[in-house]
């Protein structure tokens, strides 16, 4: 089981919102990051946002979702799904690496999402749920 979270900021780096959730089938770190990445861009699309820059501290994930070569790895189909969704739903999307030290707020939000799993009543919640603006 893993937690995921993101922080939505505008071009001036002001916080516009955040969301967090849990990933039940967290098989490995790369898979968990990729599922969180996909759920994040799906939610951004649902919110009507079509021009985004997605930062992640998972450098291998950024490499895998930006590479267009055929990926025969166990997660290759998930990376392809992220690329396909991104092309279909956004007028502009940029994926970039951000060191973990620069991503501490999103990591804290992810820990909040994971904590929902510790309360049995909330374990049935869906992946990403809006959080109050506490940032």
UniProtKB/TrEMBL annotation:
Annotated InterPro entries: RNase_H-like_dom_plant, RNase_H-like_EbsB-rel, RNaseH_domain, RNaseH_sf
A single GO molecular function term of this UniProt record: RNA-DNA hybrid ribonuclease activity
Classification via Gene3D superfamilies: Ribonuclease H-like superfamily/Ribonuclease H
Domain of life: Eukaryota
Domain RNase H type-1: 2-112
Protein name from the UniProt record: RNase H type-1 domain-containing protein
